[in-house]
């Protein structure tokens, strides 16, 4: 059921404190994540092969993990290096080590066959401490299947409704202006100009009307990398409807990752920010709070949606012209599942 | 599994406030119940056909409901009247409107085929604000199948035991005097004289001994409409054991409705009262409190019973002579299920 | 799935107060346990045969139990002696009475065919008020299958790890010195000498080095009867590695019983103590507290283990040389299951 040959965001790097073993679950697989002495991050299967006690309840001994049920000890590559009371350590005495990469501030784990793990397939994302940007980040948990959250991010027309009182007033009528989409490897790119948009709040100083270039990539399993750039009115026209060339007046960034935890559990990582010069820490804090409030609006509606889906599994949904993004992406996920 | 072609009590009318959308569930079907501008009450399927978000998390716009996920809008008859971003609205874009009737203070919904909904099949019940009566009402939720609650109401011999310390002392030995029952359309009528009954509390002033005429109709799915009339001792004899003709000294009324919510969830609506002249508001409050306490005694035992039934599904119960009412009613329900 | 023809510990005798009916569950069977007027303890099936209300919500009438749903009354032998409203009591109107024995302070119930219940098969255990001993007792509940708790008790090598900070420092390296085991009827006996052990705390006064004789019987379903005797260093040598003959310097006793409640629920009864002369009440209190803390360490790891087992049922565990005890005992349980 799960697509194993894929990179998943397991945590923010700042979540993994030195000297502690952190339990995380990705596609129903338990992970014990910790730092070795040199600060590197390791993800091992969080289940001792002996009696299935979690290693995350164990002890960090140098760079190794000891299970604190009967004392088996594992090197950071997952091989067992000690079984109390016996000399011989069978080759099968190991836990799986998951290929792990850090890109920006996300810890990515590869859940499938190790020899297929290609770090170059991981999309770029910002480090939260990148000095060119000012970013704030958090995460929240959903009692819902990750594809329902993906659907939400693949059709931003919901902004005008679900977030009417939070993001909606600052946003154009997303439902009426459709983005152009193009296929990416394991994802889709959405781009659009929103023309002659009246700015609100602290953006009013930028001009009476602005053209807004919105572009986001959406990649399996639920990576949302969005840039929203504000230009003087008329820029869209001058760009011939294509991507603008010059520096924007204001540049907002949104980076999010949906991670499937189980069939009805997901974790949603998100960062919001701007160029460092666009905003101060106080304004960023307000932007972050509004964004967080909006994400709880999504959570409320999506968890309710999940319950109604589960009440009558298999009941068909009504297709509308809003669904192009979600529909294309679901096809892509189905193709990945078939490919294995 | 559920009997759909039937009227069910969804709520008290006073629960449905103007300007709000209320979520209720009847036989596993989610309902969004609200008032239109003229005060009329509407029950729509609480599930947008587009993505299955609940309309009860949506917005009331005049008499219409807008789903606040992607903005589909529905008229009070359930037809979709707006899909943001598209002109064409397919005929299948609608939610079910449930036939709804108000009788007394209960909101009845018809869960089956609309053309079979006959308002005349709804039994009469009092309005809580009827000036001839003084009534107090509430509801409570059970973690149990509705038929277990029905069984309880169909065999009042449990009053002497379950309610020994609440209703029992005010009641005759219900276990020993059996009512006569007669079939009704979709229910049963139970009637009996309890002779020479010693009155308690504020009824002592009515006489040293009273004859009590107890009559109740019990109708699918769990409608309990009871009249208990107190007469001077000897009235039963003079009436030849039949229904009394004259005005009683005191007249208690109990109206209850059991609504199946899910297979292990039910809602129990109840009103207790007397003629307005029988009792003042303070005494009614005490009567109501005792009744409520008694209903929690039922709830405790029935929820425990449900757990023991679920521990060994299919285990046979021991029939006794007390079971005539429950047994007849279960047969009636089975016949309704077969009839469809 | 359950082994019925066996004795199980249902409760401590002091839990069963006169005048109350106590609900307990053993191998998914509900029990109503109470004392008759003469103080004897009775265990009846906690389910009225009429409507499956629990008798533990009923009323004690002399030595009989009355169901407080419709009033059926049961003698302490389980036969029904009253059905309100009818004269004839069918033979099938009874609840099961479970054979029950008290040994020491444990109430044992036989869950299988009554004619196979042999009280002599119950292992001896101490009464908590035995004047020769000073004992303190309690119980705790696990969300885990009882055999996982048994595994824990059948391989004390976990003491060095799970209880490193509680019992571990007071204990020798249990993982490195293996006990000898021998089969018992429905169990195993484990015995070992731990030589030249440095005493800690209040045992320091007994000598600089001690030899420790540890012996425990482990019996179905999870009865753990342990004696740990401390002798002057050299005693093991003089005993030829066999059981010591003389009185020890100090004698610790641990008696525990694991009772399966359901497939993911168990109750763990435990008593810890010494000879009365070994310790005062205050020191016993501290010994008890440390032991309790250790048992919560077990609970934490075993409940986590249960979850990881349930995540992938059927996944094979890695055998090690530590597993001799658990493996032998599981074979014994399988043989009992086959024997029926």
Structure in words:
- Three copies of one chain form a homotrimer.
- The first copy, chain A, has helices at residues 146-153, 159-162, 235-238, 281-311, 324-339; strands at 7-12, 22-26, 29-35, 41-45, 59-61, 64-66, 73-74, 80-82, 100-103, 106-110, 133-142, 180-184, 187-197, 210-219, 223-232, 250-262, 265-275.
- Chain A is of the alpha+beta class and 340 residues long.
- In chain A, α1 crosses α5 (324-339).
- The radius of gyration of chain A is 22 Å and the shape is globular.
- Chain A starts with 6 loop residues before the first strand and ends with a helix.
- The mean pLDDT of chain A is 94.
- Chains in contact: A-B, A-C, B-C.
- The A-B interface holds A 151, 155, 157-158, 160-162, 164, 175-176, 178, 300-301, 304-305, 308-309, 311, 315, 317-318, 320-322 and B 28, 30, 46-47, 49-54, 57, 66-72, 83-86, 90, 92-93.
Radius of gyration of chain A: 22 Å
Count every beta strand of chain A, where a strand is a DSSP E run of 2 or more residues.
17
| First and last CA, distance of chain A | 10 Å
User: Biggest sheet of chain A: strands side by side, in what order?
Assistant: 11-17-16-15-14-13-12
Biggest interface: A-B, 24 and 25 residues
The topology string of helices and strands of chain A comes to EEEEEEEEEEEHHEEEEHEEHH
What does the overall shape of chain A look like?
A: globular
Q: Low-confidence runs of chain A (pLDDT<50, min 5 residues)?
A: none
Structural class of chain A: alpha+beta
What integer is the average pLDDT of chain A? 94
User: Level of helix content of chain A?
Assistant: 10-25%
Report the biggest beta sheet of chain A as strand number plus sense, adding barrel if it closes: 7 strands, antiparallel
Our count of helices of chain A gives 5
**Multimerization state:** homotrimer
- Portion of residues in beta strands of chain A equals 25-35%
């Amino acid at each position: 059921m799960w697509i194993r040959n894929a990179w998943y965001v397991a945590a923010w790097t700042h979540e993994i404190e030195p000297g502690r073993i952190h339990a995380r679950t990705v596609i129903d697989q338990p992970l014990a994540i910790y730092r070795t002495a040199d600060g590197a991050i390791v993800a091992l299967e969080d289940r001792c092969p002996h009696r299935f006690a979690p290693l995350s309840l164990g002890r960090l001994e140098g760079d190794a993990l000891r299970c604190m049920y009967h004392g088996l000890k594992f090197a950071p590559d997952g091989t067992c290096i000690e079984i109390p009371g016996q000399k011989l350590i069978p080759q099968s005495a190991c836990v799986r080590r998951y290929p792990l990469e850090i890109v920006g501030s996300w810890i990515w784990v590869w859940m499938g066959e190790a020899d297929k793990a290609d770090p170059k397939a991981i999309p770029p994302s910002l480090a939260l401490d990148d000095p060119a940007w000012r970013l704030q980040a958090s995460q929240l948990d959903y009692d819902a299947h990750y594809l329902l959250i993906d659907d939400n991010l693949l059709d931003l027309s919901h902004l005008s409704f679900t977030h009417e009182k939070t993001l909606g007033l600052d946003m154009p009528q997303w439902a009426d202006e459709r983005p152009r989409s193009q296929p990416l490897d394991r994802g889709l790119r959405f781009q659009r100009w929103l023309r002659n948009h009246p700015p609100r709040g602290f953006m009013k100083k930028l001009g009476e009307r602005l053209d807004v270039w919105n572009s986001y990539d959406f990649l399996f399993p639920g990576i949302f990398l969005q840039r929203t750039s504000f230009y003087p009115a008329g820029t869209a026209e001058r760009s011939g409807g294509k991507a603008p060339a010059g520096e924007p007046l204001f540049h907002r960034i949104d980076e999010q990752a949906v991670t499937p935890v189980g069939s009805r559990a997901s974790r949603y990582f998100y960062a919001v920010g701007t160029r460092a010069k666009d905003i101060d820490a106080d304004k960023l804090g307000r932007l972050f709070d509004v964004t967080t409030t909006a994400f709880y609006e999504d959570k409320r509606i999506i968890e309710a949606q999940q319950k109604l889906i589960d009440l009558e599994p298999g009941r068909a949904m009504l297709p509308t012209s809003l669904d192009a993004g979600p529909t294309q992406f679901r096809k892509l996920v189905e193709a990945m599942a078939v490919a294995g």
